[in-house]
Specification:
Blueprint lengths: L4 E6 L6 H8 L6 E2 L3 E6 L8 H7 L3 E6 L4 E8 L5 H7 L5 E6 L2 E8 L21 H8 L4 E2 L5 E2 L3 H13 L1
Antiparallel strand pairs: 1-3, 1-4, 2-3, 4-5, 5-7, 6-7, 8-9
Length: about 170
């Protein structure tokens, strides 16, 4: 059986040219834009540290592997979510929170081999009820799971442009 790993990162504020170069140095195969990073590995592994990438560049990270591991990392400004509040809800081995600079990060992780709480319903590849879009909506209102379950985090600017185009028609 071949291995498949899917890495996805998203950010509201556009990344700078320098930030894009830093991230591109980690992988040449990823679909990388100013607002997202998407890559699926069928062989090899991602050379970057997802926690460091979210702490430094991105607002959200979604990872899943065909052997059952699932991970979601979300970043909030510490002014919106205190570490004390986050720690209150991060009980057990499947949830963790920490502070990095001006941000508080929360990780939810599940591995079917570990026999711990399973968050499979959060990562429905068909985008059904309770899919990743539901979790993303907690961080980014209006988020949705797009084609093939890929997390799509709409940007306010993009939504505004689309609304303007609709009114012109």
């Amino acid at each position: 059986m071949s291995e498949h790993q899917h890495f996805q990162f998203a950010v509201d504020a556009p990344l700078t040219d320098g930030q894009l170069a830093d991230i591109r140095a980690l992988t040449t195969r990823a679909r990388l834009t100013r607002h997202s990073f998407v890559n699926t590995y069928s062989w090899g592994d991602f050379k970057g540290d997802p926690q460091l990438l979210v702490a430094t560049y991105y607002d959200a990270h979604l990872y899943f592997a065909n052997w059952g591991t699932r991970r979601l990392i979300l970043r909030w400004p510490a002014t919106a979510l205190s570490l004390d509040t986050a720690e209150t809800y991060c009980a057990g081995d499947s949830a963790d929170s920490w502070e990095s600079g001006r941000y508080v990060l929360i990780t939810l992780e599940s591995d079917t081999e570990d026999d711990v709480e399973d968050f499979t319903d959060l990562f429905d590849p068909e985008g059904g009820e309770g899919g990743a879009r539901t979790v993303a909506a907690l961080h980014h209102p209006g988020a949705s799971a797009g084609r093939r379950g890929r997390l799509s985090l709409p940007l306010p600017r993009v939504a505004a442009v689309r609304a303007q185009r609709r009114t012109r028609r």
